[in-house]
Amino acid sequence: VSRGRDGDPAAERAGALGALAGVAPRARTIGLYIHVPFCAKRCDFCSFTTAPHRLGDVERYLAAAHRELDLLGTSPWAPAVTLETVFLGGGTPSLLEPEDLAALLDRARSRFAIVLDAEVTIECTPETVSRARLEAYRVAGVTRVSLGVEALDDGILGRMGRLHDAAAARAAFDAAREAASWQVSVDLMYGLPDLDAARWEATVGAVLDWRPDHLSAYGLTLDEGSVWGSTGVTGLPPEEIVVAQYWALAARARAAGYEHYEISNYALPGCRSRHNQLYWRRREYAAVGPGACGFLGDLRYGNARALARYTGALEHRRLPVERHEWLGERQVTAERLILGLRTADGVPAAWLEARAGGDARLGALLEAWRDRGLLTLDADRACLTEAGFLLSDALFVELL
Ligand code: SF4
Q: What is the distance in A from the centroid of ligand 1 to the CA of 43?
């Protein structure tokens, strides 16, 4: 436990805040990410910070998250910032009872100023939601639902370890539409085991027919920490099929009126995710919850991932930050280019030109990408095309 000398309250507070005592956010408006780690069952592809859904643990988590908000709210920098977005991610935040969610959001509002039209998103799994539950979330202040559909083939959903089937996904989407006038986003995955072209086309067609306001689609990666990452998985489609799945979605979403505004994200006009744009625009956000990561001033930091370490730190009235890094100029340059180029808006052309200046290898690479139609570069902006998005990792490595 960090204690100030002779009960000095300022020193005591600085000890409780650790690295966050010294940050100075640059912007007046920031985001807030709240990680809710509980899942009824861990999916086989998942490498996120999760915890078994046990009542006692939920109570300890909620007490700790309230305490974390209290501590963040008493930071020297807190009075200078206003929350523009709140994102409850997981884990499965929709396992929270509406009154617990309302209390958490109330605590955030009591500790931070929040803009009137703040975007407040909650990630939900289909089997956890009903119209009544979603209506209660709306009353608590949620303005946007992100529904983890992932697939619409019951065999594939079963292999993934999901607890819902396609019918439950559709029912959850309808419940979200009926519960409130708000934004509904759907998450899908491609490159999944047994996902052939026909199944993917059928999935994309069905979901686009639902007309979600927003659609996120991520290609499967076998991450360390996932069951599939450690044991492997059979039936993965070959690379050319995965690429074809990316293009099939891009074409069908465009034809249906969706803007492909980030590598993995599509939106109807006016329905981009404000919170995620904050990440890609390299804007700042505070973090609450186990494993949650924040970015304030020149500091990127991460909380303890294990629930017991997270709650333990807060029970001792100190922030659970276990990793932090003060960013240097080179990292700032790389981050703003890499994050910005993930989006259709791209980056100011001058940023990319400045980075390539004196680097003949990078200059030649950018020229080759322009020639191949992967990058557009005019007087104002540098942007990757949809073909460029697909190959972007190769460019991002060079920008580091
Ligand atoms: S994918 Fe979502 S629901 Fe499944 S284990 Fe991971 S966080 Fe939980």
A: 5
Residue 91 and residue 47: Cα distance in Å, rounded?
Answer: 10
* SS3 per-residue string spanning the chain: CCCCHHHCHHHHHHHHHHHHHHCCCCCCEEEEEEEECEECCCCCCCCCCCEECCHHHHHHHHHHHHHHHHHHHCCCCHHHCEEEEEEEEECCHHHCCHHHHHHHHHHHHHHCEEEEEEEEEEEECHHHCCHHHHHHHHHHCCCEEEEEEECCCHHHHHHHCCCCCHHHHHHHHHHHHHHCCCEEEEEEEECCCCCCHHHHHHHHHHHHHHCCCEEEEEECCCCCCCHHHHHCCCCCCCHHHHHHHHHHHHHHHHHCCCEEEECCEEECCCCCCHHHHHHHCCCCEEEECCCCEEEECCEEEEECCCHHHHHHHHHCCCCCEEEEEECCHHHHHHHHHHHHHCECCCEEHHHHHHHHCCCHHHHHHHHHHHHCCCEEECCCEEEECHHHHHCHHHHHHHHC
Pocket test for ligand 1, best of 95, 125, 159, 189 (most atoms within 8 A of CB): 125
User: What atom of ligand 1 comes closest to residue 47's alpha carbon?
Assistant: 6
Task: For residue 148, report the distance from its CA to the centre of ligand 1, in Å.
Answer: 9
pLDDT tens profile 201-250: 999 999 999 999 999 999 999 999 999 999 999 999 999 999 999 999 99
Q: Which residue lies with its CA nearest to atom 7 of ligand 1?
A: 91
Residues with CB under 6 A from ligand 1: 39, 42-43, 46, 48, 50, 90-92, 125, 148
- Which is the closest atom of ligand 1 to the Cα of 41? 5
pLDDT at residue number 5: 45
Pocket test for ligand 1, best of 35, 45, 46 (most atoms within 8 A of CB): 46
How many angstroms separate the alpha carbon of residue 158 from the centre of ligand 1? 13
Q: Global pTM? A: 0.96
Residues in the chain: 400
User: Rounded mean pLDDT of the chain?
Assistant: 95
Distance 46 CA to ligand 1 centre (A): 6
- Residue 318: count other Cβ atoms within 10 Å of its Cβ: 20
